[in-house]
Structure formats: structure tokens, C-alpha cells
Amino acid sequence: MYSSDFPKWSTAKTQKSMESVEGEEDQCNQNEQLAKDSITNGQHPLQHHHHYHHHHQFVRKVSKSLVLFSALALAIFVVYHSSKLPASLHNSFSSSMPKELVELSKVMEKTAMKDKTVVITTLNEAWAVPNSIFDLFLESFKIGNQTKWLLNHLVVVALDQKAYDQCLKVHPNCYKLKTEGIDFSSEAYFMTKDYLKMMWRRILFLQTVLDLGYNFIFTDADIMWFRDPFPHFHADADFQIACDYFRGNSSNLNNSPNGGFTYVRSNQKTRQFYRFWYVSRNLYPNNHDQDVLNRIKHDPFLKHIGLQIRFLETKFFGGFCQRSEDFNLVCTMHANCCVGLDNKIYDLKIMLDDWRKYMSKSRNGTSLLEKSSWNVPQHCGPASFRPRRMPKNGTQGGT
Questions:
Q1: Kind and range of the H or E element at 349?
Q2: Segment 276-324, tens digit of pLDDT
Q3: Which GO terms describe its molecular function (predicted)?
Q4: Do 54 and 170 fall within a single domain?
Q5: Are strands 317-319 and 309-311 parallel, antiparallel or unpaired?
């Protein structure tokens, strides 16, 4: 599709890399066809009388999506390998690639850890204004237990210009994600069209990060970071995700996942999984990414590609739905089970104060003698969480 714009490959090493990628793409295409076949054969729970109509439309949409993914994959391949090429070829590639993709590659390269892992969050104007969610998010890293270093590896993805401008004032690693024809600047109501578009745009962006070869921790900005999470990740997992409610077994697919916190390793399995996840939105319209994940997590396609999924325990990765009760173990706390930006801010400020008190006890050597406890949720939590239809132009947020 873009081959006429590319110079001839001039080194055996580059040719070998190209053949390797082409081999992986062939396998991806085979597995994507299996995914479509799985869906077409009725693996998903559709009503019988809509079966043929929905699946016929879905397969056409999948095919269209895969064409777009193929074009994106080729562009990403060139950006990924361009750093290994002579300067003249690098400049030629860069000039023919989408500007946004080149910029993203630069930000990732600058921010990543030695093993090519980055921490990613997304931000819009409503959450970026001073004294809002973003300030609390950054503050948690600064007052956490040995978490400040992680800020060096945090990429903030701004969804609008004002969020990007504010990010640059307080953080060095910002990237503006452009989405034509959509305004993500205001607080999106839970489950409205803008909210769904924002969630699916996020999945597509994270797919691009994986295609560039980077592992990532994705974190919502309403998650407070209190400890380094890496010691609590599973060594054998490809895709790890936090839970609203944890059922006691990290391999139990009946856990209730929350897409606000994920740790994903970049490999062939996760790249295929994110493609499958994204195109599955067409089969389940008006569902957000988390609901679709709950529907596809049992799909045979995931077993076929060998994807290892693990669910993170709430005693380490908690939230307002199910708290991390032990201050000596907690890594992150999420303002989930909460509707409304003001409610989130109110409870998150109290949460940070609770943590400061705990850290003060730790410095004074009294943390083992005086048990710490959370004073949240107050305005949030399961008892107050009532998702409902919102007016078209409002400012109340989602989970």
C-alpha cells in the first residue's frame, strides 16, 4: 500500500527483519481469520433470529478494520526499525510516515525503561485543570513509597490541546493524540457516545504502542500510586488487569476486570489480542471496552493464540469498589465505583491525606503499633454508584 514511497532495503539485517515481520504478519492473518471464523460460527452469544444479519455485517467490518490495521502495521514497522538505518534512509522514512507516529515513537524511546516498558495515562481538559485529577495523580507518585522514579517513565497522552498545554507545564513527557472530528475536552458522561469513543480510541492507541514494540502499564489518572507495582506482576502473563472485585484466583476468568489498570507485554499474542478486542466492538455496539472484554475473555480464539491472562489482586491493586485494606501492601488505589468528577476529587484528596498519615507513622516507627485505615470512600463507593443516563451536555464523569 505504501511500498512505492519506500527506498529499497539495502542491508541483509534489515531484509531479515522484514522477513521476520512478514512471517509474523502471515501468522496474524491466519489467526485473525480464525477469529472471524470463530465469531461467524456462532461462538458469541447472539440472539438466534439476528444471527446471520449481525455476523454478516460484522465480518465485513472486521475485513475493513484489518485492511486499516495492515496499513498501520507497515507504517509502524518502518518507524520501529528506522533507528537502525543510516541517517539518509531514516529521514526518508520519517518524511513518508504519519507525523503523529514519528512523534509517538520519539516520545516512547525517550521515556521507556531499559526493557522498553512505559507507564501511560490519558488526560483531557476536564481532568487536567489545576487542582483536578491530574495534579492528585502526580502527587501520589511524589508521596508514594519509592514511586517518584516512575514519573521518569510516564507518558501522558493528551486527548485535546488544552490538556496537552497543561501537561507540558508540569510534566516532561506529553503526547497529543489527535482524533479527527471528536472533542474529548469535556468530562464524558458514563456510557454516552463520547465516552465510548474515548474508551475505544484508547484501545486503538494502546494497540499502536504494542506494535511499536513497547510493553506498558496503562493507568487511569484517577488511580493513586503508592508503591512500585512490578514485584506483584505475574512473570508468566502476557496481559494483566486490575479488578473491581477479585474472586481469590488470578487465573479465574470470572473475575470482574477493570480496564483502568493493565500491564501488557508486547509480543505476537498481545498484538493479536488487541486487534481482536478492537474489532469485536462491532459485534457488541454501545458497549465499552471493559464490557466487550468480559464477553470475549472466554472466546476460544484467546486460547488458540496462547494468551496468558492474569487478574491482579485487590489487596495490592484496590479501589473504591473493593479496597486494599492493608497499608503495608497497597500499591495502587482507584477511584472506581464513582460517578462524577467532583466526587472523585473529594474522595481522592482524603485518600492522599490518609496515605500521608500512614507514611508519617512509618517514619516515626509507629506504623506497626497503630493500624492505619482508609476514610474513603465517602462520596464514592458501591453504595453510591448508580450509573444512569445523563443529560447530553453535562460534566458528570464515569467510573
A1: helix 341-364
A2: 999 999 999 989 899 999 999 999 999 999 999 999 999 999 999 999 9
A3: glycosyltransferase activity
A4: no
A5: unpaired
